Amino acid sequence: MRVIGLAGGIGSGKSAVSAMLARLGAEVIDADKLGHAAYLPGTAGFDAVVAEFGREVVAADGTIDRKKLGARVFSDPAALARLNQIVHPLIRTAIEERIEAVRRRGDVPAVIVEAAIMLEAGWRGSMDEIWVLSAPAGRIRERLAAQRGLDASEVDARAARQMSDEERRAKADLVIENDGSLADLEARIGEVWRARIAR
Predict the structure, then answer these.
(1) Domain for residue 31, yes or no?
(2) 56 found inside a domain
(3) What is the pLDDT of residues 1-56, one digit of tens each?
(4) Within 10 A of 55 (CB to CB), how many other CB atoms are there?
(5) Segments forming the whole domain that contains residue 90
(6) Which secondary structure element, helix H or strand E, spans residue 130, and what is its range?
(7) Are 114 and 183 members of one domain?
(8) Smallest Cα–Cα separation from 3: which of 134, 104, 128?
(9) pLDDT tens by residue, 175-195
(10) Across the chain, how many H-helices and E-strands are there?
(11) Please, what is the Cα angle at 88 between 94 and 95, to 5 degrees?
């Protein structure tokens, strides 16, 4: 079983590619979902986030208010670094536990770990390969305007907080260009699957 880390900047198409790979027979682990679970009430992650950022980041329903927390950390690089120091190790542990569970089942040829922050967080050691999705900036702006209602300046600001495309490419075992239609991308993913997984 191959463990593939799927990385890429905001709007590069990671979720679409994960869905395509799942249809081909891969098990997909979404690091973002595990990240949300890492600080649910009753967890060590919740306690650590509240201890670091205060009760004001707790919503009326008792969960972490992700909008408030996001507003706090994305305007303060030091606060973001502190949050990452809390959450990233918890997510990595959860990913490794899920990979091991799938390995024990032995029923899929590949696990895809979809994680925007994989390279920044230093998770490469848990992966057999890193696949990086890359898309032109103009295409990313169009996609995020349509999908999330973000304007170009919001997209650019979020992208600026991430590792650059050039840095990701330099760390990749494979770069997948997402510069055409969805059908083009699906054809490309099928070729990659046949060449690297289903051989």
Answers:
(1) no
(2) yes
(3) 999 999 998 778 898 999 999 999 999 999 988 988 888 999 999 999 999 999 99
(4) 6
(5) 36-106
(6) strand 129-134
(7) yes
(8) 128
(9) 999 988 889 999 999 999 999
(10) 10, 5
(11) 20
